[in-house]
Design a protein that fits this description.
Blueprint (H helix, E strand, L loop, with lengths): L1 H17 L16 E6 L6 H12 L2 E4 H10 L3 H12 L5 H12 L7 E5 L5 H8 L6 E6 L2 H9 L1 E4 L5 E3 L18 E2 L6 H15 L2 H5 L5 E5 L7 H14 L5
Parallel strand pairs: 1-3, 1-4, 2-3, 4-8
Antiparallel strand pairs: 5-6, 5-7
Helix pairs in contact: 2-10, 3-4, 5-6, 7-8
Bound molecules: adenosine-5'-diphosphate (ADP).
Length: 251
């Protein structure tokens, strides 16, 4: 399947080289051999943690719309002011804004061998937008029961300074309230409070879950079952890498 996709891409690129004026408007800076993955799952599934570990192991870029959005809010930019209410209420930021953010990131000159999208797409519109720019090689789908999500999110803490993620029950920092990596202060995200978690799960069911049917049959899936709260992230990442290798999806 991925071979067919890749050959298609090669063909398309040849045509573009030959008829530059007829090629797509969006620049596609990656090479054919690069990896393009989506990590998909409900809020609190661990997407960010696994994506950053996979990115460093595979030498690809992690593109996290959640991190970019939080950064805009933290810096109090015009964009940050526009979107803060959506995020704090557990709602999605409007598609047109997120799609712009994504396009900008994806079209940056590549310094890596591809990318992993983390927290994007979250709606069919967002998926269609990425389809116009890149072919995705695989969806890494995290299957997590709801009780695990609630347990994880309500005890999650983040470093104010470097964004490292901890869990006060399952992935404790060495010293309470202090980041192991940079010594920064740990805090609880506004949207990790119980009322907001409920809303985020609802939004996920209604707006994001339908993406599974959207991609079924189009893109290979790597399904990862996360049935308990205390599986070490390294174990999950090892499992993901093994499956990607088996499917011949890593370079
Ligand atoms: P989660 O842990 O819920 O997966 P993220 O860090 O990915 O959280 O995102 C936090 C919030 O940022 C979301 O609840 C949403 O408000 C906003 N957000 C992030 N990515 C997107 C996106 N692709 N589309 C719309 N809103 C987004």
């Amino acid at each position: 399947m991925d071979k067919i996709l890749r050959e298609g891409r090669e063909r398309e690129r040849l045509i573009q080289d030959f008829h530059p004026l007829e090629s797509k408007v969006v620049v596609n800076p990656l090479q054919d051999g690069d990896m393009r993955f989506i990590i998909f799952g409900p809020p609190g599934a661990g997407k960010g943690t696994y994506a950053s570990m996979l990115a460093s192991k595979l030498k690809i870029a992690q593109i996290s719309t959640g991190d970019i959005i939080r950064d805009e809010i933290k810096q109090n930019t015009d964009l940050g002011k526009k979107i803060i209410d959506f995020v704090n209420k557990g709602e999605l930021v409007p598609d047109e804004i997120v799609i712009e953010i994504l396009k900008e990131e994806i079209n940056k000159p590549p310094s890596k061998k591809g990318f992993i999208l983390d927290g994007y797409p979250r709606t069919i519109e967002q998926a269609k937008a990425v389809d116009k720019i890149e072919e995705i090689d695989a969806i890494i789908r995290l299957v997590v029961p709801e009780w695990v999500i609630i347990e994880r999110l309500s005890s999650r803490r983040i470093c104010k300074n470097c964004g490292a993620v901890y869990n006060i029950r399952y992935l404790k920092p060495k010293k309470e309230g202090v980041c192991d990596v940079c010594g920064g202060e740990l805090y609880q995200r506004e949207d990790d409070k119980p009322e907001v978690i409920k809303e985020r799960l609802k939004v996920y069911q209604v707006q994001t879950q339908p993406l599974i049917s959207y991609y079924s049959g189009k893109v290979p899936f790597v399904n990862i079952e996360c049935e308990s709260v205390d599986i070490p992230p390294e174990t999950i990442v090892k499992d993901i890498l093994q499956q990607l290798h088996k499917m011949d999806l890593t370079k």
